[in-house]
């Protein structure tokens, strides 16, 4: 009995304890649920807030992107806006990366092809704003390179801004080796092309800082250069490559001999003190070898070869030949610098002038194709300031 009472009492106590415990648990559960609910409400609203802010950011991004695209489209449109009403050109981000400082002061005398004149030197000076000197690392390990350049002296360059129907662009050009016969422009290397871009190959003599010394060049002084790429013989030269017959029928453009007048050497010595500040040549003797190499090719234009005296009157009128779009590969028929000496009494004896490495060289060529180099002088308008890339720049590299 006593035991059962005790047990009842215990049970009651236990019951109370349990009830209290449950109550506490359920209260605390209710509280936590309440707290949780409040917290989750806060979180939800925070999430909504964030979602809203994200959405607005995305919207902003999208509209910014659309704005950017619109701006880019506007810029592209602006860039491709025709320069004249008749013209619609596509533009690409291309402008010269450097400039050629060559021994060929004018187009006249500049070889028609690369490597014809091994002594023909030029410094290629890169614009360091556009290409840091590190761009040239490794280039000196090649013997030759390709050079892409602009035919900046083409007298018809302006016309290329016009609509093709008005540019007077000629599909066919006269070819020196065909004695005036014509070929489609893409079958020639004429400078008069729809895009006035030239391609040549040159020997790499040395690379120094932002400059290269090249030889065998056919590039006129001041030529803007677009690109340089290494010449890789195993893929750039094709043994079985074929060319048209007219290219191989040669000897039209070589001369019989080149000799110098008795006074020439002393005349050259006199000029040299001024010339050497700019020159890429070590000595008067080396420069004389250059003259010989240059004049061993008939550098006269086609009409000069055919009608030397006509050519002079044409020059005086400064009028281009009718419909002559091109004659030589690196020369403009319309703008050569040959002149006849004013006091030449013998009308058969035409004296030609060639500006080479800043020196004015006079020569004649007889009926049999013998060239006689008569005299040399400093040109009237000679910039005697020394050149930053003359022979002294390269002296150590050349030896
Ligand atoms: C070099 O390139 C920059 C940028 O294109 C140009 O502003 C500057 O005139 C160029 N310098 C020379 C010497 O061509
Ligand atoms: C030269 O071109 C003009 C138009 O540009 C043409 O009328 C004329 O017939 C051409 N002359 C020759 C000789 O081809
Ligand atoms: C060579 O040119 C110089 C300078 O122009 C001149 O003084 C000299 O008389 C010329 N010599 C000959 C032989 O024509
Ligand atoms: C070259 O010399 C000749 C005379 O010897 C002269 O007529 C001609 O103008 C000179 N050319 C230059 C660019 O000085
Ligand atoms: C260049 O020539 C002018 C006059 O002919 C002279 O005063 C000047 O000192 C010369 N400059 C150099 C670097 O020889």
TrEMBL record:
Residues 94-240 form the TsaA-like domain. This is TsaA-like domain-containing protein. The chain crosses the membrane at residues 12-36. Keywords: Membrane, S-adenosyl-L-methionine, Transmembrane, Transmembrane helix. Belongs to the tRNA methyltransferase O family. Residues 308-334 are annotated as: Disordered. PROSITE patterns: TSAA_2 (PS51668). InterPro entries: TrmO-like_N, YaeB-like, YaeB-like_sf, YaeB_N_sf. Residues 308-318 have a biased composition (Basic and acidic residues). SUPFAM superfamilies: YaeB-like. Pfam families: TrmO_N.
């Amino acid at each position: 009995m006593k035991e059962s009472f005790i047990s009842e009492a215990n049970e009651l106590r236990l019951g109370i304890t349990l009830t209290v415990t449950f109550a506490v648990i359920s209260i605390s559960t209710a509280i936590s649920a309440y707290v949780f609910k409040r917290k989750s409400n806060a979180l939800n609203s925070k999430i909504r807030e964030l979602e809203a802010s994200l959405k607005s950011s995305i919207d902003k991004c999208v509209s910014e992107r659309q704005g950017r695209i619109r701006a880019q489209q506007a810029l592209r449109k602006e860039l491709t806006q025709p320069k004249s009403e008749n013209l619609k050109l596509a533009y690409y981000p291309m402008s010269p990366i450097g400039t050629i400082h060559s021994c060929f002061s004018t187009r006249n005398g500049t070889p028609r092809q690369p490597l014809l004149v091994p002594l023909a030197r030029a410094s290629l000076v890169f614009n360091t704003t556009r290409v840091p000197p590190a761009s040239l690392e490794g280039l000196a390990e090649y013997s030759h390179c390709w050079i892409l350049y602009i035919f900046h002296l083409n007298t018809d360059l302006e016309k290329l801004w016009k609509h093709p129907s008005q540019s007077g662009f000629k599909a066919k050009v006269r070819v020196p080796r065909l004695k005036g016969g014509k070929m489609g422009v893409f079958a020639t290397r004429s400078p008069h092309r729809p895009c006035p871009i030239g391609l040549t190959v040159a020997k790499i003599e040395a690379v120094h800082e932002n400059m290269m010394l090249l030889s065998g060049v056919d590039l006129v002084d001041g030529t803007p250069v677009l690109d340089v790429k290494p010449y890789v013989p195993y893929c750039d030269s094709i043994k079985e490559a074929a060319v048209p017959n007219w290219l191989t029928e040669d000897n039209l453009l070589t001369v019989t001999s080149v000799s110098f007048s008795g006074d020439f050497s002393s005349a050259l010595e006199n000029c040299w003190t001024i010339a050497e500040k700019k020159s890429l040549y070590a000595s008067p003797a080396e420069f004389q070898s250059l003259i010989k190499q240059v004049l061993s090719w008939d550098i006269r234009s086609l009409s000069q070869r055919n009608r030397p005296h006509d050519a002079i009157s044409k020059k005086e009128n400064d009028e281009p030949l009718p419909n002559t779009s091109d004659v030589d590969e690196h020369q403009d028929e319309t703008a050569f610098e040959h002149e006849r000496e004013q006091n030449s009494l013998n009308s058969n004896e035409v004296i030609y002038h060639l500006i080479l490495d800043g020196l004015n060289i006079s020569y004649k060529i007889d009926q049999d194709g013998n060239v006689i180099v008569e005299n040399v002088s400093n040109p009237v308008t000679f910039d005697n300031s020394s050149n930053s890339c003359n022979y002294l720049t390269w002296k150590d590299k050349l030896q």
